[in-house]
Amino acid sequence: MARAGFGLLSVLLSLLVIGLLGAVALNHYWSATPDPRAGGAPGESVSPDQSARLAEAQALSSRAMTALTLCAQTTGMAAGMPGGAGGRCSLAEIASGAGVGPNGVTADGRWQISSAEISAGGSGALTGQVSITGLGGNAAGFSASLFATPGGMVSRCDVGGAPPPPSPSSGRGC
């Protein structure tokens, strides 16, 4: 009587080989993937505390950009909106939507929206920039900018006390 199939030993050896290959592959993957907390290229690491502050700045800049976009749509700045492509949104108009006071400062006084602007390009796509500056507490020395470009959103940061990055290619990724 002939036995068909694999023996227990051959199955275990096969699983061992597959496990070793998987461990080597995952190790190479993890070492090649940048740390998401670093916010930039390899070698540009930030501490967990700095990462948390940058996340706060990014959240505030995202809220401000959302408020700017809504303002642009309601003023007719966006393409295809009734009323043409004119209109302007001031910081005071978007402040409540961004969760800050009329002067752009957060309630705890640690962050300020230093600039917020948006415009409609020739194709009707909205482009703009929101810049955030850390004023006090553990936010002092941090700054961030969020850029709306025709290719999508670009976020840039600085942790060294410099002003917010002025262009999508300056500062560090965050």
Q: What order do the helices and strands come in, and which of them pair?
A:
Blueprint (H helix, E strand, L loop, with lengths): L7 H25 L15 H27 L16 H8 L12 E10 L5 E9 L8 E7 L2 E7 L13 E2 L1
Antiparallel strand pairs: 1-2, 2-3, 3-4, 4-5
Helix pairs in contact: 2-3
Q: pLDDT under 50 segments (min length 5)?
A: 38-43, 80-85
Structural class: alpha+beta
Give the strand order of the largest sheet, numbering strands 1, 2, ... along the chain.
1-2-3-4-5
The radius of gyration is 24 Å
Beginning-to-end CA distance, first to last residue: 68 Å
- What's the shape? elongated
Helix content: 25-40%
> Describe the biggest sheet?
5 strands, antiparallel
Strand content: 15-25%
pLDDT averaged residue by residue: 79
User: What series of H and E elements makes up the topology?
Assistant: HHHEEEEE
Number of strands: 5
Continuous helix count? 3
Instruction: Tell me the number of structural domains.
Output: 1
What's this, in brief?
With 174 residues, the chain is an alpha+beta fold. 34% of the residues lie in helices and 20% in strands.
Descriptive tags:
174 residues; 3 helices; alpha+beta; five-stranded antiparallel β-sheet
Describe the structure.
A five-stranded antiparallel beta sheet has the order 1-2-3-4-5, covered by helices on one side. 34% of the residues lie in helices and 20% in strands. About 7% of the residues have low confidence. The chain has one domain. The protein has 174 residues and is α+β, with helices and mostly antiparallel strands. The protein is built from three helices and five strands; from the N terminus they run αααβββββ. α2 packs across α3.
